[in-house]
Amino acid sequence: MLFHSRVKDKRHGLLLDKPLDDPSCCGVCAALCCRSFPNVDLSWEEYQLLESMGATRLHFSIHGPHKLIIENGCEFLVGNRCGIYDLRPEICRRFICRSD
Question: Which terminus of the chain, N or C, has less C-beta within 10 A?
Answer without folding.
Answer: N
